[in-house]
Amino acid sequence: MRNRQAAVIFILVTVTLDVLAMGLIIPVLPKLILDFLGGVMTDTAKWSGRFAVVFALMQFFFSPLLGVLSDRFGRRPIILLSNLGLGLDYIVMAMAPSLYWLFLGRVISGITTSSIPTAMAYIADVTPKEKRAGAFGMIGVAFGIGFILGPGLGGLLGKSDPRLAFWVAAGLSLMNWLWGFLFVPESLPSEKRQKFALRRANPVGSLKLLRSHHELWRLATIQFLAYLAHNIFSVWALYGMYRYAWNTDDTGYSLVFVGIVTAIISGGLTGRMVKRFGEKATLYIGQFFGASGMFIAGLAKTGALFVTSIPIISLWNISMPAAQGMMTHRVSEREQGELQGALQSMRSITFIIGPWMFLKIFGWFIDPKYALHLPGAPFYLAAALLFAAMLMSTRIKQDAPVAPRSTSIPPPPDVVPPESIPSGPIAPIMDQKENI
Length: 436
Prior knowledge:
Strand content: under 5%
Number of helices: 19
Order of helices and strands: HHHHHHHHHHHHHHHHHHH
Radius of gyration: 22 Å
CATH architecture: Up-down Bundle
């Protein structure tokens, strides 16, 4: 029990520090790019876009690879190598003598932060099936804390030296690696591991797992819509400046409020909702509130009313852990890493297309040359996406058998073959993943 608690704490700290380290460099990376480009803002905007796209692309390609490798070699070595690589990468970025070295560092950080799906698989390994949604909710707390502390601390450090934030991020990642190396056990027993196959590790091949079961594919589609809607935050700052005349402090305070509410709801409400209403109801209840909050945000004519929409939007956070939990029930223990890698690849696709889509829509509806002036249009689109996801969620079954897939490792001799089980509902073959 103590080992399990220590492992869960390590994963929470790992995710928190990963997000914190990413948040630390958000305020300072554009400044560093600007310095390398001699203060030319237009070139800085172009290069900032390239940095964002390459980061998402690396996550798209490497998340499924790391997930499948963790199914083969275990979660611990993948997580530790990623933590070590991330720490060393931040040192490279802190010492970067040119823009191209800094760009290379961003490529490497996109690869190393792809370990978060493996961390999610670790949680599933050590958590009973019925507690997984609550555990994934605690991952939401870790994300919230990271985004509360990271940008603020990064901005403070960046006032004296933009590179200082990279050094602090490196120190956090390396300390986390040392802690895990010394104290954290492996979560995936050798008899539950799956032989490595390249077709499962490439981003397109990994998505085939999501199509292996009808309801798994439906849940994946629901998550895709939710991930896409989450990119509304790409217009958050511009929306506040345009509609409410916010300055950077106002934007920062609003995002800190988002982080605080997210952490409270993810940690304090998700588990209770799942216990009371079940994962399916929690899924569509969260999406209903998310859609409602987005619609209110689009209507809000004052900054104060916009801020009141944040807690309503944040109730959406109970739905994603519920969806994650339901998806883990629909694959076998040997496929948990592959599942999380596939989901991260899918999310990376939305990171590539989502910001462009929302920013384009925002720009079009505030352009004076068009008759229709509708600055809230991006929020209405996000509300529509979540409403569509909610309708799909009502048709999901609460639980379903695992879709069997061929594996190169035969089951242990004491396992009863599936064909010997009487017909009727079959409990999913699941690994014990997530409880936080």
